[in-house]
Design brief:
It contains 9 helices and 12 strands. Strands 8-9-10-5-11-12 form a 6-stranded mixed beta sheet, with helices on both faces. Strands 4-1-6-7 form a 4-stranded antiparallel beta sheet, with no helix packed on it. A two-stranded antiparallel sheet has the order 2-3.
Length: about 250
Amino acid sequence: MKQIECHNLETAYAASLNRPILNKISLEIEQGEFVVLLGLNGAGKSTLLRSLVGLVSLEKGNIYINGLEITTQTLPKIRQDVGMLFQGGGLIRQLSAIDNVLCGKLGIRTAKQTLFGFPKRDRQLAQELLEQLGLKEQIYQRTSLLSGGQQQKVAIARALIQSPQILLADEPITGLDVVASQQVMQILSELNTQENLTIITVLHDLGIAAEYAQRAIVLDTGKVVYDGKCDNLQSHFTQLKDYKKMS
């Protein structure tokens, strides 16, 4: 099943780049795939990822999620199926871990429904998610007191509490040490294999990408220059760098 379809995506002209950030990108992603977006800085990786949840304005092109085209009218429904891990976690540092996780429910509950706090079942689910991610002792700690790896696990729990079908992760291991990076990637891998969750992540580490992802999409100057297996990724980047030197 084609879960994500992008047809001829193009953003507004960016004077600093002398081109659109996304420049006629077309691709399809099947349900249950683990896809990594790769490319040099400015290639358009994060912009493409954010476009899949309606955070980027398109000049041209169409995006379909589960057969539904992204429009102003359909976006609220689509976002119920798409979880997002923002670069740096995007947590509210003064709130506890569990309260940050509960914020993941705000998009699917009305203001009236949350006026007197979250239902007991939501709090129970948030607690269970944090425990499953190894944060039983940190549930009521302020996130500012947690390590980078622990904060990223809180961000994952916040995305999962809405029961998404697709999880978008923008550089989820940036700034983490080797152990924390492996833990975060292992969590994403298990969600993919055990829950059949579609994972699309932006990464810079080619070794990590080859270890965990099934498919790599390499961008350069806003275009897809490689789309396939994660074999021999280093050669594709060598070609990109050589191309930059020649141009």
